[in-house]
Structure formats: C-alpha cells, structure tokens
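Feature request, filed as a ticket because there's no other form

It would be nice if the structure record came with a short human-readable summary line next to the tokens. Right now we just get the raw output. Example of a typical job, pasted below so the devs can see what we mean:
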Amino acid sequence: MFPHIKQIEPTRQDAPIGDYISDKTEAYFDALQLLERMHRLMLDLVKDEFERLGRNDLTPVQVLILYNLGEAEVSAGELRSRGMYQGSNVSYNLKKLVTMGYVSHERSDMDRRSVRVKLTDEGLEVREIVQQLFLRHAEGLAMSGVLDDPPLEQVNMQNRRIERFWSEQIRYIY
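Raw output as currently delivered:
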C-alpha cells in the first residue's frame, strides 16, 4: 500500500508503537542521535583545547556562551535564542562570567528589568581562542573533503528546515 514504508515484525503481540517505520523516519531518528552526540563532542573539543592551554576556569558551556555572544551587546533572552542553552543555565552562567570578569553588564535604559551584556577584553580573548579552534577544524575538514559530499551548504539548509519545523511545533503547542 505504501511502498516507501517497510513493515517491522513486532516483537510483542501488542506492539503499540512502530509497527511501521519508514526509512526516512529511521534516518530522522539517526539524525537526532547524531546531533546530540556532535554537540557533546563539540563541548569535549572545547574542553580539551582549554585544558591544553591551562585555562580550567571556564566550563565548555561558558566558553560557548562567550563565543556566541561575540562582539554584540545583547540581553540574556537574546543570547539564549542564539545558542543551545536553557534559560536558567544562561542566567547562572552569565552571573559566573560577570563575576570572573569575562562579561560586563548594565541595565537597559529603556527597560530597567532587562540587563544588557557584552564581552570584556578577557571575554574577547576567549572568543578568539574558540574562533581559531573552529577555523583549524574547518580547514582540516575542507582539506579532507568531508565537507564536499554532500556539500555542507545543503546539510545546513536541511538542518535549518528541521529547526524551523521544530520552532513551529513549539509555537503550535503554546
């Protein structure tokens, strides 16, 4: 009836979920696991780089917050929407980063409840370290041909479509 769907033999007589799983569904499940593993590996790469440099005062998540903050001045909410952080983690980590001198903050003139944050010179140094790390990785991947088949631009476009779909699902729920 549906040629693109293969039938899976149920392991139990009352198999409630997944009697039919399409190849695309399996690929989607693989992609979800791969995204999670790649994120953890990226955190490990950042951690290893900073340990190699003797910079053990920052967690990998804090380093990525500094990297994603960049040279902009933003609110915590804007920073959360840019990166992969939970709301409470952003607030906690921003407080730590301010205390350690990597981020400066000030209340917004327009809305006193809102706090604007930006990198200090020390924060900019950390961002540069991460930028150089990612550049080395990009060059190595480009030289190896890994980014060519399929072209990374197509992979990124597909990931943006999935991101948009997920965002729409979240908006639909609320």
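Something like this underneath would help us a lot:
DSSP finds six helices and five strands in the chain.
The first strand starts at residue 5 and ends at 7.
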